[in-house]
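Today's session is about reading a structure prediction critically. Students often jump straight to the picture, but the first step is always the sequence itself: look for stretches that repeat, for charged clusters, for runs of hydrophobic residues. Only then move on to the predicted structure, which in these notes is written as discrete structure tokens rather than atom positions. Here is the chain we will use throughout the hour.
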Amino acid sequence: MKEKTLKRLSLTLLAVSQLILALDYTIIFVGLPSIAADLGFSANSLQWVVSAFSLVYGGFLLIGGRLSDLLGRRRMFIIATALFGLGSLIGGIVNSEIMLILARAIQGLGGALLSPATLSLIMSNFAEGKERNHAMSVWAAMGGVGLSLGLLLGGVLTNYFGWEAIFLVNVPITILIILLSPVALQESKVKSTTRHYDLAGTVSVTAGMILVVYYLIQSPLEGWLNRVTVIPGIIGLCLLLLFIIIEKRTIEPLIPSRIIRIRSLVSATISAALFSASFGTLYYFLTLYTQEVLHYNAIQSGVSFLPLTLSALVGSKFINRMISTVGIAGTLGSGMGLGVIGFMILTQLSANNSFLVMIPGTIIIGLGQAFVFTTMFIAAGLGIEPKEQGIASAIINTGQQIGSAIGLAVIMAIVSAISNTSGSLEQMETALLTDAVHMALFIEAIIALFGVIVVFSLRQKKSSSLLANK
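Below is the predicted structure for this chain, in token form.
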């Protein structure tokens, strides 16, 4: 098979893996009412269909990145895809609450191993510069498409085939990826002379991350100072502090200290956290607006996100040109700035609007999303040695997960405090819910504005290596 054809096939596989991960983030939302009705979930237990995935995904990302580096990126990619497919299969055939939550946890574990393996395979299979930037833009575009397409696809599948289909749709895709991966993807891994896997560091950081993410997920429901959430949160922080101590003393640390001193990676990770706290939480609040305020069904709600999807696709075509013209920091800053504008435009939504009023704001946000999502991963790969691409990918993905969890928790806490309500937003009257969505959008605009400031801490000279092959 010709090298050019192999490159296209490898990029297709990596892009599709990103697509199904992004789809899984939003596709579950529209199926929740049907799942609750069929399996008898209570309101409190139903949220664990979503949280089980996030909890395991966020907790195992760092070890997933390290395993990719040591055991082989392609090998971990195949194992992770198989786990994700297994979780999807179990989710589509179960008939009990606990088994569905377990299936979501298995999907989360697969995602935690798959995400860093996918990104590090892009770094190792595509040359730095124009080729890698193109691969990154395609990969990132699929992420943006998946987020918005998930809402539409989830509605279609649930309405016509039942909620089980939102899980089973992943199974044939993962099987095809597994079969083609040995042909299309080149293996790469780190040769370790000590074979030291930093077990103590792995256990402490994984348990610590799981407990901290649990605190962030559960506190908006149980209360920020409730001992049910505070005690696990404190234990989690202690374990993360223990992890720092362990890393300073171990032979081969899970996160080498030199990595966290690379300014471009730190800035990119902070940018990823701010991006997820603003752009990433938008889908939740706009879904609330379209379904609870405008009373759209799941399919209509999904269609309302198509302008954002299309603009994100268009924006991905201009990534290389943007980086060539204004550099990495300029591209990130422009994307965050577009987000600020789009969020502020959407604050004008009212209960009497149709989704047509959403179009200007979502188009601008889609363009900004494309600029930020792609470029922050390009920035994260600068100055990273090939043997550490997996852990670097895991670090920025962890930033995304933590940013999303913290962002949504903080926004919900502020909205609840100002609205003087302790119930869920879905239970609000239309006028109050509209005000709550406005408030959330305004907070997202502030977060994105802070992101504009942060991204300009990137060293402009670091972007020059990206342009060498243009």
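Discussion point for the tutorial: The radius of gyration is 21 Å.
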